[in-house]
Design brief:
The chain is built from 17 helices and no strands. With about 400 residues, it is an all-alpha fold. The two termini are about 25 Å apart.
């Protein structure tokens, strides 16, 4: 028999799944569309793509805490619905964009509306007991994994027909998601558990202060920041690196990203819950960081395409880290603060993403340009491995001892 909490989780799972399919559809083609609008100049397009990524992250940085505060005050459902509607409109703008500036406007809109992913995390915390949150956050990651299986593969196929077709498909999915949420998605936050809207919490500076104002979150936030920095080497440089290093076309890129989605699906849906139950959230976090480090070394040093592809499943085990981190963080705040917490973590994530598009695209550009003589075209992945090492060191030095206990042994 399906409990009410489980049914609510299924609803939000489907919502996130549709969002991620729509998001994944455009991944294989956005860089190529930028190359086309730049007249075929790949080096120039790499710089533009980096600016796009930074602008996207900046809008998330501004919007995530605001949406999180709104979700704590008015509930999760209206924030998610408005986001879906906005994303649909944004993909239409991008599908029609004749120039780089108009495409850039579309990317700004998507940065605002996609900030609701943090609201989905608050939704999960609302309907899940603390001891089960890591597994449920992992299952939410399954939606991301399925989205990255279906989305990029579909996007690569549609791009072979027309470069703009994936954007129209993404718009259709987002509008369908809005209708699904409007008709089916229940509210997860009862009125009696809603907090007041605080302007201090609804801005990025206030969100970062929120993390600093809770004992146990400071070290966790530092570790999360470096992990977020490390994570983005793959989404930022994968398409450009794979095309340059191994001559992958759009279809090959889509299939490779689908492999990443399958690997993530297995880890998030079948591995995280078992590992957390056996090791506890703290050790699961460390395990994810160190295996992710090994995966990045393999991606960056692989001399052949098969070895490069073999690095993707290894890297996917980094997926152990984020749900464990979220579960530990969610224990440190009140139920009325879950939206603020997820918004604050999203802001922290956005700060990292403000840095990583320029950091990794310029590292890649330097590695194949002025520093090509070093023979390290995968330097961006090696840099990511170093950042994961820093994150692991922070966890070892700063995390509370209580978090080292297995979840099954810790009092709730």
């Amino acid at each position: 028999m399906i409990t009410r909490a489980r049914a609510a989780f299924i609803f939000i799972f489907i919502t996130v799944l549709l969002d991620m399919v729509a998001f994944g559809v455009i991944i294989p083609v956005l860089p190529q569309l930028i190359v086309t609008l730049e007249g075929g100049d790949t080096q120039s397009a790499a710089g533009v793509f980096g600016i796009f990524g930074t602008a996207f992250a900046f809008m998330q940085f501004l919007s995530a805490p605001f949406l999180g505060a709104l979700a704590d005050r008015f509930g999760r459902r209206p924030v998610i619905l408005l986001s879906n509607l906005g994303l649909g409109a944004d993909y239409v703008v991008m599908a029609l964009a004749p120039t780089i500036p108009i495409l850039f406007v579309g990317r700004l809109i998507s940065g605002i509306t996609s900030s609701s992913f943090s609201t989905a995390g608050a939704y999960v915390a609302d309907v899940t007991p603390p001891e089960k949150r890591a597994a449920r956050f992992g299952m939410l990651g399954v939606a991301f994994g399925i989205g990255f299986i279906i989305g990029p593969a579909l996007g690569g196929f549609l791009a072979s027909i027309d470069l703009r077709a994936p954007f129209w498909a993404a718009a259709t999915l987002s509008f369908a998601n809005f209708l699904y949420g409007l008709l089916i998605l229940p509210e997860s936050l009862p009125r009696e558990r809603r907090g007041r809207f605080s302007p201090k919490a609804a801005n990025p500076i206030g969100a970062l202060r929120f993390l600093g104002g809770h004992r146990g979150l400071v070290g966790l936030a530092g570790a999360a920041f470096f992990a977020y920095l490390a994570h983005d080497s793959l989404p930022v440089t994968f398409v450009l690196y794979a095309a340059h290093r191994f001559a992958f076309d759009e279809r090959s890129i889509g299939l490779a990203l689908a492999l990443a989605g399958v690997s993530s699906l297995i880890v998030q849906g079948g591995v995280i819950g078992r590992v957390v139950a056996a090791l506890g959230e703290y050790r699961a976090l460390l395990t994810g960081l160190f295996i992710g480090l090994l995966g990045q070394l393999l991606l960056g040093l692989a001399p052949t395409a098969p070895l490069f592809l073999a690095g993707i499943p290894v890297w996917s085990l980094f997926g152990l880290a984020t749900p464990s981190l979220q579960a530990i963080a969610s224990r440190s705040v009140e139920p009325t603060e879950q939206g603020q917490l997820q918004g604050a973590l999203a802001s922290l994530r956005s700060v990292a993403t403000l840095i990583t598009p320029i950091l990794y695209t310029q590292t890649f550009a330097a590695a194949i340009g002025p520093l090509a003589g070093l023979g390290l075209p995968g330097a961006a992945f090696l840099l990511s491995a170093c950042l994961l090492f820093v994150s692991a060191v922070i966890v070892l030095r700063a995390m509370p001892e209580r978090a080292t206990q297995p979840a099954s042994q810790r009092a709730i």
